[in-house]
Amino acid sequence: MAKQELYEYQYTTPNKKVIHTCLPALRKPRGSSKQNSKITWGIIFQIIGVAGILGLPQMVADGAGIVSILTKTVIHGGLLLVGFWQMHKGRLGLSRMKRYFRYMKVFEHQPYASIDELAGKVAKKPGIVIRDLEYMIDEGWFLEAHLDRKRNYFMLTDQAYQQFSEAEKGRILREEQEKQARQAKTDPAAKELSGLLEEGNRYIKEIRTLNEGIRGEEISHKLDAIEEVADRIFEQLRRKPEKIDDFRKFIQYYLPTTVKVVRAYKNFEQENLPSRQLEESKQEIEETLDKVQMAFQRLREKLLEEDVLDISTDLDVLETMMFQEGLISDEFK
Q: Torsion over CA of 268, 269, 271 and 273, rounded to 10 degrees?
């Protein structure tokens, strides 16, 4: 997209410096001529419809047949309704364009805003603002915009959305940890679970920190994948705390050993002197991390298989009980 189509603006910093920049949105929303055309055609249809309806008394006076009168009534009444609808859609489109520029004023100094804040800027209900924003995203007026899942916040840029998603993920995790901490005060099993998850999250956080300092893209992608699988395993443990024994070795041995291996890779990478032995060690670590990811994924699949088996057993028991009670027939069973 050409730069001149972007939303360009300037602002003055506290030290009087003028900043010129572009936001990821259109400077002039497309479709204004289309909206004006709808209004024009709406007026034309209304004029034709009204003229036809006004001519009905003359038709009656001239002794026209009932079929002719009804036909003209339907046709011109329909044109009148279409005219009203077209004019309404055109005016709605132009109103949205005006509100678009009010929304953009909010984003000149911040990349996100709450729906309530935007609603206050345009003096409309939040539901109208949400429909506006969804329409503008679909029409391409915003080039990188996102609404959050609950439709409470609007982010103008991909970066702002990514930051919001990470913050939301962290908030949910904190709430879950606080809940587990409250349960741990009265439940020894919950206390053990909370401690195990805290330990696992500590290792994952260390892997993430090490990953940020590693230059190699390929190994960085592998560590991202390992982190993702580990997060899913933790989620399974939260849902199935009774399977804590299946996770203990994963958290207390596999994860810390993975951290140790990744730390060694980072240290090797920081060595300035070329060494064949170091390169071979780095290659061996990368291959090992592939196996680690596969092993973690297999552990997750194994736990899912156990869940499937458990529910299958429950279904068989339920079906048998219903049969014994005469609630289902043998044929159905």
A: 110
